[in-house]
């Protein structure tokens, strides 16, 4: 057997598969470890791009609009995600502030932009932009480190901790952040390594 | 609609390595063995990651070292009306339970105690087991590995809670909350154990199994 375009190797267990055209609506799973290898979704690329773009736009609301508001009698304090990120910015805690910024804002934004850069032109039947492959690889590398959804659970826990100290209300950024978490999860179900790379490969050969 | 093996021609469980090829873990294409860079996506290729287990244990150990101060030092320093009180990770959980917020106390306890400890044990177990022929079902080991990889990030909850509290509660005289040193060491511990889990080469789970099944079929 020789390497060819329709031989696929499971990235989890190294088993080989011969794949033809993937039928619509079918998920191909590895025969040995059952990892999803390919998703037969002709519109998958367009969906991925649309969802990623939506999430990116919402992200701009998230960063600067108030996220949570805390009222305790006469005192009011508002925090945007940006302020939350900067909360460790003094003294020895500064590196942690940078790390939180990366986990919550920078990496999710980088991942979404990389996906739009790599796959965006494909959804308009245009040749890919330069560096598309690097961007797609970057998106995959960054994936485990983008922790927006975990931040949301953190918010929920913080709300409970503060419940008897003061009255809390959620700002516009809170709801758009919640939407981003949902949209990103939806987008990930549409992405499979094999299908995405095949689409990019075919577009660049044209 | 799930169809395992549906519309797919299976080649038994022939691995890329057995077929004299190397598979790309990024884009799933195969190349002749010895190829160093994937011709499609440009990732570096390696049939089996030889330094994998060394890196797993190195990151694991560093992660464990940071987990100790994370539990001993305060996570949150709360100042109310001139009085100062510290709360460690476990202290914070107890406090939540005293409020009667059992559900949330459970989430925090699970994310900051059960997951990290479970992860240390699970990673060490996996890395020990795959070194020599083992009698475990590979599917079970893979489930354990996938669980560890997926759940590890959720330990970050407590660090984010601290960040949110610190940003919100700054009422000068009445109440202020500041982060403690444990927040940093806990975050580092989570990052290092994530790196440890990522260094593990899941393809090794099957390698020793193949040797066993070959022997038993003789």
Automatic annotation (TrEMBL), chain A:
Q: Which InterPro entries match?
A: PqiA-like
**Keywords, alphabetical:** Membrane, Transmembrane, Transmembrane helix
Q: Which residues form the signal peptide?
A: none
Highest taxon of the source? Answer: Bacteria
Give TM regions.
44-68, 96-124, 145-163, 169-186
| Pfam families per record | PqiA
Official protein name in the record? Paraquat-inducible protein A
Where does this protein come from, organism-wise?
Jannaschia helgolandensis
Lineage summary: Bacteria, Pseudomonadati, Pseudomonadota, Alphaproteobacteria, Rhodobacterales
């Amino acid at each position: 057997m020789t390497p060819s375009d329709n031989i696929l190797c499971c990235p989890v267990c190294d088993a080989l598969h011969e794949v033809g055209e993937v039928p619509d609506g079918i998920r191909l799973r590895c025969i040995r470890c059952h990892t999803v290898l390919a998703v037969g979704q002709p519109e998958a690329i367009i969906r991925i791009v649309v969802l990623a773009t939506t999430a990116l736009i919402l992200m701009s609301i998230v960063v600067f609009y108030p996220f949570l508001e805390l009222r305790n009698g006469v005192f009011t304090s508002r925090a945007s995600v940006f302020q939350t990120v900067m909360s460790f910015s003094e003294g020895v805690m500064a590196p942690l502030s940078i790390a939180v910024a990366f986990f919550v804002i920078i990496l999710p934004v980088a991942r979404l932009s990389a996906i739009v850069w790599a796959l965006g032109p494909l959804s308009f039947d245009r040749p890919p932009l330069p560096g598309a492959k690097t961007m797609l690889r970057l998106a995959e590398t960054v994936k485990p480190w983008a922790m927006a959804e975990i931040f949301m659970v953190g918010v929920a826990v913080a709300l409970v901790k503060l419940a008897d100290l003061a009255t809390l209300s959620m700002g516009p950024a809170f709801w758009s952040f919640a939407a981003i978490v949902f949209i990103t999860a939806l987008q990930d179900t549409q992405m499979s390594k094999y299908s995405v790379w095949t689409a990019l490969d075919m577009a660049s050969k044209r | 609609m799930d169809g395992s093996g549906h519309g797919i021609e299976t080649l038994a469980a022939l691995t890329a390595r057995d077929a004299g090829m190397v598979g790309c873990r990024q884009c799933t294409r195969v190349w002749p063995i010895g190829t160093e860079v994937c011709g499609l996506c440009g990732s570096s290729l390696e049939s089996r990651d030889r330094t994998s287990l060394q890196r797993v244990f190195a990151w694991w150990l560093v992660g464990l070292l940071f987990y100790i101060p994370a539990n001993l030092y305060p996570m949150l320093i709360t100042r109310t009306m001139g009085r100062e009180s510290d709360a460690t990770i476990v202290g914070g959980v107890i406090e939540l339970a005293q409020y009667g917020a059992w559900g949330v106390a459970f989430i925090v306890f699970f994310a900051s105690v059960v997951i990290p400890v479970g992860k240390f044990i699970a990673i060490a177990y996996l890395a020990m087991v795959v070194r020599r022929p083992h009698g475990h079902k590979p599917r079970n080991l893979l489930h354990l590995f996938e669980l560890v990889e997926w759940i590890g990030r959720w330990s970050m909850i407590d660090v984010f809670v601290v960040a949110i509290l610190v940003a919100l509660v700054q009422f000068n005289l009445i109440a202020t909350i500041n982060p403690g040193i444990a927040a940093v060491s806990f975050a580092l511990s989570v990052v290092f154990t994530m790196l440890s889990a990522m260094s593990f080469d899941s393809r090794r789970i099957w390698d020793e199994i193949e040797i066993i099944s070959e022997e038993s079929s003789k």
